Structures
1.
Amino acid sequence: MNAKRKIIIDCDPGIDDTLALMLALSSPELEVIGITVVCGNVPTDIGAENALKVLKFMGRLDIPVYCGEEAPLKRDYISAQDTHGMDGLGESNYPAVTETRAKKDAVNFLINTLKTQKNVSIIAVGPLTNIAKALQKNREVFKNLDEFISMGGSFKSHGNCSPVAEYNYWCDPDAARYVYENLPKKIHMVGLDVTRKIVLTPNILEYMQILDKEKGGFIKKITRFYYDFHWKYERVIGCVINDPLAVAYFINRELCSGFDSYTTVETEGISIGQSVTDSMDFWKKEPNSHVLTEVNQKEFMTMFLNRVFGEDEQEIRKILLQIM
Ligand code: BDR
Ligand code: CA
């Protein structure tokens, strides 16, 4: 068997971040060497507490959690607690973890890890503030980075917090821009064009309960609030789960397709936070991103259910034929 790929998950848990963590922790190809938390869906301390709750639920409290930046680079911080609940886990109010605590200084953890370890990739599923800060402090170490995946932005799809902007880039547009313009590696942009198509429907949630009452129950509990939000504001029955697609795509490139192009992010005005991809090459700039446009939703869901619930892939495909 090939060696496991080492990853750091930079996140703001967050309901869908939690699902991304569950998928990563259940995937034998991955070694999660650390979780860094940034302010986004919830303030950093709440996000770090949630990361620990997920680790405890998955029996992986051995993985270190680091608290990162508590405010965007320049803008005032605006959380997404209207979407994820005040506790960030859909008002599920799971008790705080007492066995261990989150450490400080995610930015230095990122820099030191890249300095001392080879073949580390980062999957970023929150605003890019921690990454931008680390990059500003030490760009050189990012040359050692294996791959960089960012859930954020959108190419043609409408935004989810303004007509054109996706939350992670809108929350800290200056960080997002800085990362796109300075990272010495290509950014795989897993944006709303593809993640919007990943909907956790009531039928799939029901299927999860059948597969495993405990894990299914956990996911049901944390997504209830998210369901209500999606129905109220988007008339979607179910909820869009963006972040686990970034992990799934990292594991299997065949789940999504896209194209290489130059991308940057607007930092001012009515389009603040919008990702701008020069798909027609007006600017004649070297591509800095691989922008995803298509996704195979059924195969994503098959992977998620197989990894997290341990069900056989062929069995899952048969059931998904009925319910997807
Ligand atoms: C992104 O914003 C957050 O609310 C989600 O966790 C996801 O990372 C989607 O726009
Ligand atoms: Ca997130």
2.
Amino acid sequence: MTTDEEELEMPTALITGITGQDGSYLAESLLDKGYDVIGMVRRSSTVNYERIAHIQGAIQFVNGDLLDQMSLIDAVKQHSPDEVYNLAAQSFVQTSFGQPVLTGETTALSVTRILDAIRNVDPSTRFYQASSSEMFGKVAEVPQNENTPFYPRSPYGVAKVYGHWITVNYRESYNLHASSGILFNHESPRRGLEFVTRKISYGAASIKLGLEDKLALGNLDAKRDWGFAGDYVEAMWMMLQEDSPDDYVICTGMTHSVREFCDVAFGHLGLSYEEHVVVDEKFFRPAEVDLLVGDYSKAAKKLQWKPRTTFEELVTMMVDADMALLDGRLKGLA
Ligand code: NAP
Ligand code: GDD
């Protein structure tokens, strides 16, 4: 086979949300697998490629916005992807209470915009929707699996329920290969600073280095099933390699409180979280999801997927990365 023929056979993946946490890990993974990776980016006044700076040269970028139907159609037309991963969203639950309509437009209706683009341009394109454990909200059972009823507790959760069901609906109505990954919280050193895990790892590192003394948090008793984003993007890809599309819960099966996260993070640096963490009402939510813990047995059986990173490994990885980041900045200033 000649080099030209080999190149022709490389699959192409279009990723929305490539500048986000998951987009960066998925792009890395697909490039390693030999994919041509197309990253959809929206216009901004400054470049925000921080998370993908190390692989930027290997990615082709296409301009597009979830709120703009034509740009989605053009992106699909222009690049004829074999697979589309819809990771873009307004993804911060707290913001969804303040901006519920924008969250609905972006996180809910845009899923239909992308599905319609695929349906009209090339219905053989495989599609992944980033669904969320936030859809389980006020949980109907413990642990949560693919059959657990949804009871969302935030405008974000409500929007994700719409995105989930429209994916199922287009699969059933138009025979699209459209799968939905119901992913529980997954974190990494690339997590946005406003999410609680990164806020804690960054806060603990700042305190250790003498840059801060206190860290203000909200509900310390909330419990989440936290995994590592690098493990979870593999499951997204596995779903699209299956002959038939389906829905899968992706999680670790273990749950920990925000308080426990603080304990491990501060403890890793020889600090006591009780001396530094203060509770501030402004970080409480109008409605809370108290407990999430998933059951990934379907993904284990059908996809042979399982999480590889433990809670302690995840927390210490994030704290070490923030120590290195802040230490590097301090040295740069010296
Ligand atoms: P993230 O870091 O917040 O990234 C969100 C991405 O969406 C960014 O690239 C952002 O672009 C893009 N985006 C936002 N609005 C857009 C618009 N109007 N047009 C085009 N792009 C837009 O989120 P993440 O943690 O990687 O999560 C990826 C997906 O999984 C999201 O759909 C999230 O809701 C879902 N999810 C996440 C988790 C989790 O624990 N991380 C769990 C379940 C489901 P900019 O960089 O330009 O802002
Ligand atoms: N962000 C934040 N900041 N959360 C806090 C704080 C704080 O200071 N203090 C306590 N928490 C609690 C929140 O009340 C919530 O119960 C929990 O920590 C986790 O909050 P986040 O890290 O903001 O994540 P999330 O669970 O609301 O949402 C994330 O996971 C979803 C999957 O279940 C996001 O990544 C969503 O996009 C994702 O779908």
3.
Amino acid sequence: MKKTSLLFIAGLWSSLGYAQQKTIDQKVDSVLNLMTLEEKAGQLNQYSGRNVTGPVHERNVNMLDEIRKGHVGSMLNVKGAKVTREIQQEAMKTRLKIPLLFGLDVIHGYRVTFPIPLAEAASWDLDAIKLSAQVSAREAAAAGLHWTFAPMVDISRDPRWGRVMEGAGEDPYLGSLIAKARVEGLQGKGFGDLQAILACAKHFAAYGAALAGRDYNSVDISKRALWEIYLPPFKAAVDAGAATFMNSFNDINGIPATGNKYLQRDILKDKWGFNGIIVSDWGSITEMTAHGYAKDLKHATQLAITAGNDMDMESRGYRKHLVELVQEGKISIADVDNAVRRVLRKKFELGLFQDPYRYSNEKREKQELNADKNRQAAKEVAKKSIVLLKNETQILPISKTVKKLALIGPLAKSNKDMKGFWSVEWENDELVSLYDGVKSKLGKNTDILYAQGCNINDTITSGFAEALKVAQQADVVVMAVGETFDMSGEAKSRSDIHIPGVQEKLIQAIQETGKPVVVLIMAGRPLVFNYTANHVKSILYTWWLGSEAGHAMADVLFGDYNPSGKLPMTFPRSVGQIPLFYNYYNTGRPPLKNDTRYKSAYLDIPNTPQFAFGHGLSYTTFKYADLVLNKSEMNLNDTITVSVNITNTGKYDGEEVVQLYLKDEVAQPIRPVQELKDFQKINLKAGESKNLTFKIERSKLSFYDDDLNYITQPGDFKLMIGSASNDIRLEQKFTLR
Ligand code: GLC
């Protein structure tokens, strides 16, 4: 091993730090040239702290000893200014004093929990989504963290897959804009800024297309589907400057993502020019043996580094086999050096070589975590994430002067469930339940009655009697039903996505009392709730709204906020319809309104969803008028300007997400019946009108042909403007010459 005095190293880092004229890459090379092969392997090894988020392969490692020996480049699941400082101090005892990176799954908030990402996607409010990421980054950075394994940008069309809660839904266009907003929110003003942390676009790629919605299952899709549906949000993340990527557990057409050169080198690093870090998912290197793709961990290690995987999260393959694989000539030192450069570059960019402890500041941590401004931000985002599915007899909003209000259901008083899956540093008493929110909203003159009625997921109905008694006494009943927070998330696939247990039976019992009933459904995924959808007049989908859940729900229930959310995923009538999505192909035998004989249809259920992509109501109504295209023909270098007038025709101020869809009428290969190509979320006072403008340019008309050329074909297009994918208000045709 090269002997290098600590004095020399200390002098070197400080000289590097101050020699601003040296570029980051020159500094990186200065360090790389000092490193032994073993130290290089160490930089590519990431261990977890005690709080594990995956299967533990071996426990008998002395982490601090490993760190001191220079065998660790990054730790995950270590958090807090004090602890990260202590662990970083161990890294400063290594020969070269290369600082550690601390990473954690800050998916929707660190101490203040924001709505789950799928809920935020329902806001269609990119500023709100960016704000959520900014606050999450600020708190995480104050807690000593450099890196979050977010945003998860996996498109999914299958609500059986529990991780839909973590993404932005089924649409590549919306998903791409949200990926950009989240990366920009997390990385803020750029590295070096103490509120910026490394974002991580995951899981690369197509993890959301798992067969049968079963987590970690195989993915079998065409390359065209890969490029058209699943890759766009990742490209958006690269364009937004995402510092890191995480690959995925799944195989794609028989090649595990972690060992997939096409994905990691050909597309991400070469075609897209990504110069950040690709980290494996937890154990996904070693799992290539289970896939049957590698014969053992050493072989899996060789396949992973060669395919472009830079850092090894908890397979320990790089720690154990990288050195010998280089010595045996089975992998190139160039691949190892390239990976190490990527890691060192991020450490320089974060300023960790100059000050390894700059993020580990207990005073700043104390000031930042759970700060009122952070909670206020969480409440604002939560309100915008709520979707009004039905309000047929305008029970909502409920008057604040209501005399007797009954809160019924297993989630009415739950604090812990409000956090959803992937919450981090929450305290139960910092999570506001629906009951807490309603109580703090309504004055003394409202009698709030309560009954749990039933549990979430069993067959016990003995609580119905009490619930019925409470309902009978009330003027209005608000019910809170759904899943538990951990019935969606990682490894939480469900073959049956009905609202679990006897909750719909309870809803039916209460509904049949004839009282005005509002049902709030809380979940991390689209659920099936046929009785409720067909019989209850007012339904709000509130997902998991985080720390300020109860206050946000109360604001909507009593009209202090007019709900504005729109579904980012299709809600099926039955799990048997899945995969069911809005941008489908018409087929050669589309069902006719009243004739499904010999058509692409079921005998027992319509093809249409229970609630469509883009659906969401308001307490007010909006009129769409005067759709005007400045021309009806365009050529490839042209732009068509579209204008439309929207009027708030109700008595409440409110927001509307005006959606623009296109259909390429005839194309080879065929194009979907509609594709979201633009939207604007606008705020209109009661009676107010606003003229909106959209631009149609080539990028909105292009698609991949079978040879993966990104093409545009002349022909007719149908332009649709509406309030949902199945609520098109205005249409017009135009032609691409
Ligand atoms: C998990 C997840 C991944 C997460 C990682 C670290 O298995 O798949 O999203 O970032 O491990 O917790």
4.
Amino acid sequence: MLDGFGREIDYLRVSVTDRCDLRCVYCMPERGVPSVSHEAILRCEELLRLVRVMARLGVRHVRVTGGEPMLRRDCLSFVRALGQVAGVESVSMTSNGLLLSDRLDALRELGLSSLNLSLDTLDPAAYARITRGGDVRRVLRTLDGALDLGIPVKLNAVPVRGFNEDAVVPLAELARERPLRVRFIELMPIGAAKALRSVPQAELTAALEAAFGPMIPDPVQYGHGPARYWKPEGFTGSIGLIGAVSREFCESCNRVRLTADGRLKLCLNHSSGPDLRARLRGGADDAALEAAIRAAVAEKPERHCFSGGAADPEGRSMNEIGG
Ligand code: SAM
Ligand code: SF4
């Protein structure tokens, strides 16, 4: 499916819940987080119906995200069902990893094309501070277990000034001897993150080069996203940088998002998008859903406008959007 700027949209991020068992400083406020009501959240069959319609329109890659997707009891069965949708070629998941360490065998059966684990530091105290209470040992158990089982893993870290800038080199070091992609994602000024400061990507590159030598570009493109990868000398895995703000890649954007309450989100930093739940529950047939999705995608904004100028700037926080 092409948008109004001729971009091929073949990637869908599905947020299955807005709830989370952590409160990362750049994602959610500490307290007073309003949750979407249970009835407002799309049921598994409703999500699948929308994915089937979108797959008919050309979506080939689906990522399950949240909030924390594993807080939904039907998360893994949903992931399994996604893999059976005609036209869907790859299914992946983004998780904080806390609830996965004892579900790894089930996860392996799913044949995920990638498990993305969010891990901002290896230091237990710093992890507890940035996540407001998380236990890093549980994430590390998931990481080790997933790699042992041969599940393809990417680690996502968001460097935040004053919280984890010293974690960059130790995190990257994890890729030296393992087939792991360690990616540093630039802080995006959405929700709680507006009050925080990002760490410039040039600073990250300088720290990584000082530790590992020249950052030799890795010619392999892992996945369907905007990361640029490097493979320092002697590394099995690689290091990725995703600079959504400073290195805008809107021109090659390939994605839309579905929120847990059924909004189709056309751009990370624009709030507009049709309410597909209302159409679904109002009795729309597949043809009507298809028409609504096509019409919305045709209006996908050209750019995210993080530096201002969006007519409909996003007011929701990342846990509602799905990252
Ligand atoms: N709870 C899961 C997790 O943390 O992996 C999935 C949802 S989370 C919203 C998805 C991704 O968004 C995570 O990798 C997280 O680090 C990232 N994220 C959240 N807020 C962000 C922000 N303000 N800027 C950049 N990335 C952000
Ligand atoms: Fe939860 Fe993920 Fe947001 Fe952290 S980044 S608060 S784990 S949704």
